[in-house]
# Entry
Amino acid sequence: MSVIDKPRSKVLERILTLEVVRVTERAAVAAARLRGRGDEKAADQAAVDAMRRELNVLPIDGVVVIGEGERDEAPMLYIGEQVGTGGNIKVDIALDPLEGTTLCAKNQPNSLAVLAIAERGGLLNAPDVYMDKIAVGPGYPKGIVDLDASPADNIAALAQAKKVRPDEITALVMDRPRHADLIEAIRSTGAAVQLITDGDVAGIIHTTEPEVTGVDIYLGIGGAPEGVLAAAALRCIGGQMQGRLILDSEEKIARARRMGIEEPKKKYDLFELASGDVYFAATGVTNGSLLSGVRFGYKGIYTETLVMRSATRTERWIKSRHPFVEKFAAEAK
# Structure
């Protein structure tokens, strides 16, 4: 039985693609009004407000499991917040209303509004901490890379699977001082390193099309929320990923335990990060290699969104023109 022929989840059947898209579109448009203004907090707050409004009109009983932070740190869209109009469709929600706040504030590429929805219990409920990650795209033998292996071993295994030399592999890494040793280890194999300043959700998605993006593997430490969102995307389009929460203090371990995480050093695979039927949507805020950003034109507001579903492996790129009316008009002021 092919993926597309498998029975679809009855839980998510009523959540229409356009309803999910609407949520990220609203957040992206709100944030885009503040592109290049240098105010990360204002752009993020605008995206949060817009996303929350749209989530609260969806016919779901939703719980935010990956959000803007824990309840005492975030006034809305915090971890544990309930959203939606209620009903029998019980879902977990992971979101980043403005992935790449710095990118948006500086009007640099690859800032996105991102959302994932899964059946209840389908998304890792993790505190807002760092996560060590490794990811590759589809088409490789299971277990081709491993978080506990050395960068050299992972590069060698990937090169062998691709039937290329290690110097034909490119690894994507966030440009952070903490990655100095990792970058050196990757380059010592002959492989190339592509550095990004922010936006590791888009970065991990880039591993799924190396012939287009030039990215073969993602390595390094980034946010745990972004890790879960990226895993949701890979569930829809294929690939492999592992992640481990960085719980390097008793306070962080205690926070994780309160969320049901009993093994602080557990290595999570893709299906432990995001399981069951999953929807993933991302709308471009700024222009990027994955999506075009919001454009304010004479006839309206133009958006581009990628929306995917794991049950069907469907990928849709939706380009929309929204007239200056109703909610969009209010957000444009």
In short: The chain has two domains: 3-121+278-332, 130-273. Confidence is low (pLDDT under 50) at residues 1-7. Residues 17-32 form the longest helix (16 residues). The radius of gyration is 19 Å.
